């Protein structure tokens, strides 16, 4: 059984959420000053999917994952939609234009999770979602 865990992105960075009270809308986290509270309406909760990437890193909502197959690179971000976690993905074929092209389909990331690695998240690394990003 997977633990239900959350984290949240706040102005001071990504934090690991310790407790959540959904009735009051407040959550807690620990920092150097001790236990702190924040309003989950101001800083949304990002749930742990229960999965780990190819390097053993936990995968959360909002994470950006990369899969490099050599002939194609796939990048996706994880979101919770219609009762399930999904990966919305972008792909770049090795072509002269070297651009990321969006695909209007949704990929079930869980089928391929051990091929992906977490490379950032949509809050701290929004530049990774730029469609015209050149691939090295």
Order of strands across the main sheet: 11-10-9-8-12
What is the tally of helical segments? 0
For this structure, the CATH topology of the largest domain is SH3 type barrels
The largest sheet, given as strand count, sense and whether it forms a barrel, is:
5 strands, antiparallel
In whole angstroms, the N-to-C terminal distance is: 39 Å
Binned, the helix content reads under 10%
CATH superfamily of the largest domain: YopX-like domains
In total, the number of domains comes to 2
Coarse structural class: mainly beta
Question: Can you count the beta strands?
Answer: 12
Question: How would you characterize the overall build of this protein?
Answer:
- Helices cover 0% and strands 54% of the residues.
- It is mainly β and 136 residues long.
- The protein has two domains: 6-45, no CATH class; 48-129, SH3 type barrels (Roll), CATH 2.30.30.
- The mean pLDDT is 79.
């Amino acid at each position: 059984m997977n633990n239900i865990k959350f984290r949240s992105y706040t102005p001071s960075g990504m934090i690991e959420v310790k407790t959540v009270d959904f009735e009051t809308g407040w959550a807690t986290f620990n920092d150097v000053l001790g236990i702190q509270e924040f309003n989950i309406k101001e800083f949304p909760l990002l749930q742990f999917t229960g999965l780990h990437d190819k390097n053993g890193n936990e995968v959360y909502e909002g994470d950006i994952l990369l899969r490099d197959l050599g002939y194609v690179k796939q990048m996706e971000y994880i979101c919770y939609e219609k009762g399930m976690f999904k990966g919305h993905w972008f792909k770049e074929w090795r072509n002269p234009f070297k651009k990321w092209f969006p695909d209007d389909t949704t990929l079930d990331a869980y089928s391929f999770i051990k091929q992906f690695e977490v490379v950032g998240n949509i809050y701290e690394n929004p530049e990774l979602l730029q469609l015209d990003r050149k691939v090295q």
